[in-house]
From TrEMBL:
Gene3D superfamilies given in the database record: Class II aldolase/adducin N-terminal domain
Origin superkingdom: Bacteria
Protein name as catalogued: Class II aldolase
Organism: Sphingomonas pokkalii
Source organism phylogeny: Bacteria, Pseudomonadati, Pseudomonadota, Alphaproteobacteria, Sphingomonadales
GO molecular function: actin filament binding
Occurrences of domain Class II aldolase/adducin N-terminal (ranges): 20-200
Cross-referenced Pfam families: Aldolase_II (PF00596)
Coiled-coil segments: none
GO cellular component, one term: cytoskeleton
Family recorded in the similarity comment: Belongs to the aldolase class II family.
Length: 253
């Protein structure tokens, strides 16, 4: 007589909440036009399981990601559940490095947006030419392109170049943002994306006006006063999730 296959254990409440938040984020990225075919990645730690992470199923578009089809993996990218989907090695090599060495990197986001890649491919990178760029001047790291990120040995240079920053432009490649929470990482990514979009638009019209360093310093000193209570990015992300829900609530499944 055939033996029934054992079912995977039901996720804990903490894991399910993390799954829903991450699935919502993939849908928000898609709504904002930040999808890249089946590529790019957002990862989060599973709150109640040391060394466990959630990542998108390799092969699905961001618009197809749901709480239930996210893949749970360990720090080396090995699957910890019975998901039928593979994991993109190019996705997790870089993320695993930061998750392993940076305790505050709860969530990591990597994208290939047009504006992000354009500014990452520009001599001088992000310039202090607009409101959002001022958030990042002196707070953003850079790493030279070394090819697709599938080699562990690149990790030492990535960490060294990141230093104490938590936002990076991967030269000729794209945006990397991380946060102590998913909403914090999201609002960093969103603001950097806006900074890049505006820089690209401005440079297309002529010579940008650069903001003086002393004004950038005042901006960075005071910008927290414009935040809504609840933690960095919390209200911003919640608003985006409400918009996604009007389009399609299947991410919650």
């Amino acid at each position: 007589m055939a033996t029934a296959l054992a079912q995977a254990p039901k996720p804990s409440d903490a894991e399910w909440e993390a799954r829903q938040q991450l699935a919502a984020c993939y849908r928000v990225f898609d709504m904002l036009g930040w999808s890249e075919m089946i590529y790019n990645h957002i990862t989060v730690k599973v709150p109640d399981q040391e060394g466990a992470f959630l990542i998108n199923p390799f092969g699905l578009h961001f618009s197809e990601v749901k709480a239930s089809n996210l893949v749970k993996i360990d720090i080396d990218g090995n699957k910890l559940d019975d998901s039928p989907y593979p994991v993109n090695r190019a996705g997790f090599v870089q993320h695993a490095l930061f998750h392993r060495h940076l305790p505050d990197a709860h969530c990591i986001m990597h994208s290939h947006t047009t504006a992000g890649m354009a500014v990452a491919s520009l001599e001088g990178g992000l310039r202090p030419t607009n409101f959002y760029a001022c958030n990042f001047i002196g707070q953003i790291a850079y790493h030279d392109f070394e090819g697709v990120t599938v080699r562990d040995e690149e990790g030492e240079r990535l960490l060294a170049n990141l230093g104490d920053k938590r936002v990076m432009l991967l030269r000729n490649h794209g945006i990397l943002a991380m946060g102590r929470t998913l909403p914090e990482a999201f609002v960093k990514h969103w603001a950097l994306q806006r900074a890049c979009e505006i820089q690209v638009a401005t440079m297309g019209m002529g010579q940008p006006i650069e903001i003086a360093p002393e004004v950038v310093a005042v901006h960075q000193r005071d910008v927290h006063m414009a935040q809504v209570p609840g933690g960095p990015g919390a209200a911003d992300f919640a608003a985006m999730v409400r918009l996604v829900d009007r389009i399609d609530r299947s991410w919650r499944d």
